[in-house]
Specification:
four-stranded antiparallel β-sheet; mainly beta; six-stranded mixed β-barrel; 14 strands
Length: 261
């Protein structure tokens, strides 16, 4: 991972396709995709802004970058490249796990996640990708595609291609988070705790909380995590205070990519 120096604040840690701490020293091509037609483009939607990977400014390899506040209508022309197995299975800049077989991409300044149409200038072929990573930090390249996207654009063998990119859906202005208020082994106790949180919500006149239970089983043991969310990030601190006033102090704040982990 690369350590990025924020210009106006402290050090910020981001992941991206210019990073180096991986199990492989060099990148290499993934296993071939048997049926390219089976790869579906993602459906563009305006998702909440990622809580990770969106600093206002950051620095990589001595160069400064500013993340676009609102990317609605953004377009750009340049060279696309793609990145492969060196990065497969590692965190992207917004904390998700990079999968070479998904339709994703990396961009230096677009807010995460953004949905982008990538069109080859020479052939007219186009795909839709979800931008969830930072890069490519190479001169003359404007977007780094996953292997799947590169295959659909028929540029996986050449490595690069001239493209035009246009934002179809930019993220919403605010990021959202979840608050894990407790993790219990007994489902009935988890349901009672869930009701307690609903009662607190009514008493404090808070916003439209959703209190859910995320149950998992490992080694024949069940864990039932009681979570509040999604909550707009600016509302997290007041919500934590309200919980503390009601004796709920052992809370954990989670981003969306952490919910299934």
């Amino acid at each position: 991972m690369i350590r990025l120096v924020a210009i106006a604040s402290s050090l910020i840690l981001l992941h991206g396709c210019a990073t180096s701490r991986y199990q492989h020293d060099t990148d290499f091509t993934p296993a071939p995709i048997a049926d390219v037609k089976a790869i579906e483009d993602p459906v563009p939607v305006s998702e909440p802004r990622s809580s990770m990977g969106n600093p206002s400014r950051y620095r990589v390899l001595g160069k400064d970058y500013s993340v676009i506040e609102d990317a609605t209508g953004f377009s750009e022309t340049g060279i696309a490249s793609w990145y492969g197995m060196k990065f497969h299975g590692h965190d992207t800049s917004n904390g998700e796990v990079f999968d070479v077989y998904k339709m994703t991409a990396a961009h230096k300044t677009l807010p995460l996640p953004s949905y982008v149409r990538v069109t080859r200038s020479d052939t007219g072929q186009s795909v839709v990708v979800r931008v969830n990573d930072r890069g490519p930090f190479h001169d003359g390249r404007i977007i780094d595609l996953s292997y799947a996207a590169a295959v659909k654009l028929d540029m996986h063998n050449s490595g690069t291609a001239p493209v035009q990119i246009e934002v179809l859906k930019a993220p919403l202005p605010d990021s959202v988070l979840w608050i894990q208020a407790g993790a219990l082994s007994n489902l009935d106790n988890a349901k009672r705790f869930q009701q307690e949180l609903e009662t607190i919500r009514a008493e404090v006149g808070a916003g439209d909380w959703t209190v859910g239970i995320h149950s998992t089983e490992k080694n024949e043991k069940s864990i039932h995590r009681v979570r509040i969310g999604p909550v707009p990030e600016p509302e997290i601190a007041p919500l934590i205070d309200a919980l503390k006033q009601n004796g709920i102090t052992q809370t954990v704040i989670l981003s969306q990519h952490q919910l299934e982990r």
